[in-house]
Amino acid sequence: MIKVITYGTFDLLHYGHINLLKRAKSLGDYLIVGLSTDEFNIIKGKTCYFSYDERKKLIEAIRYVDLVIPEKTWEQKISDIKEYKIDILVMGDDWEGKFDYLKKYCKVIYFPRTPEISTSQIKYDLSLVK
Ligand code: C2G
User: Fold this and answer.
1) Which terminus of the chain, N or C, has less C-beta within 10 A?
2) Cα dihedral angle (63, 2, 54, 8), rounded to 10 degrees?
3) What does pTM read for this prediction?
4) Which of 124, 126, 119 is nearest to 48 (CA)?
């Protein structure tokens, strides 16, 4: 069984996220999502519209996702890879190169981001609606 993992905040879930999760799952049989907790998002400098529990419910409803675990720190990836026997780590290419240090533990693949859509873009566009 090929196990894949990816990490993210996934706030205001949109088709860019879905594209990434679909492609991540296509690489194996089992996809784990390390979902950033509200506390970790503060460390990441992100303010979320949806809470961790709400975002978890959304991600768990996606057919490509088999398990959601909390992402609490930058450092947990190595232990996650070992604990869950991960074969492939996938991230969007805005992270290109940033997780190459994990190549000694598993394959690391960066997929092109879905252009033109992002959570911040959605927030901005909505701010224009009166
Ligand atoms: N993504 C994408 N296309 C978009 C928007 C996002 O492919 N249009 C991808 C990102 O590249 C990332 C994933 O969807 O791989 C989740 O995006 P974010 O929630 O923005 O993730 P981020 O805040 O970058 O957190 O430890 C890793 C971090 O937790 C990643």
Assistant:
1) C
2) -120
3) 0.96
4) 119
Strand (E) positions, 19-106? 30-36, 67-71, 88-92
For ligand 1, atom 28, the nearest C-alpha belongs to 8
Cβ distance 4 to 25 under 8 Å?
yes
Where does the chain show beta strands of DSSP type E? 3-8, 30-36, 67-71, 88-92, 107-111
Q: Catalytic residues, which ones?
A: 44, 46
Instruction: Give the integer Cα–Cα distance in Å for 108 and 128.
Output: 38
pLDDT for 75-104, tens place per residue? 999 999 999 999 999 999 999 999 999 999
Cβ(91) – ligand 1 distance below 6 Å: yes
